[in-house]
Amino acid sequence: MIEITESAVRQLRTLVGAAAEKGLRIGIAKGGCSGLQYEMTLGAARPGDAVIERDGVKFFVDEESAQLLRGSTLDYRDALTGAGFQIVNPNAARTCGCGSSFEPARPL
Fold first, then answer.
1. pLDDT score of 72
2. Is 39 helix (H, G, I), strand (E, B) or coil?
3. Which residues contact residue 77 at a Cβ distance below 8 angstroms, ignoring those fewer than 6 apart?
4. What is the b/e burial string over 15-40, where b = at least 16 CB atoms within 10 angstroms of the residue's CB?
5. Domain residues of the chain, as ranges?
6. How many other C-beta atoms are found inside a 10 Å radius of the C-beta of residue 99?
7. Which pLDDT band holds residue 6 (cuts at 50, 70, 90)?
8. pTM for the whole thing?
């Protein structure tokens, strides 16, 4: 469903430590300058979530968001202009300049 880079795994491991039940929740909500925006929070799995486990850390994606994230790659980048988790989404027709919101290629 979503490819997770080694850099994203390392950063999440640093954030959650030994809390095995916690992981990174990845979702999509209405908003942002392009119509939809990515949301990421630390938390536990919820009923209906897809659970992606890689190298001992977990990533959770709700059912609705999974459709728009299929084939995406989650990365963690640390650069002079900022650091954070970033999503490369092949389902986005266009993205805003900051990369936190997008317009889907297909209507919802």
1. 95
2. strand
3. 7, 83, 84, 86
4. ebeeeeebbbbbbbeeebebebbbeb
5. 2-102
6. 16
7. very high
8. 0.84
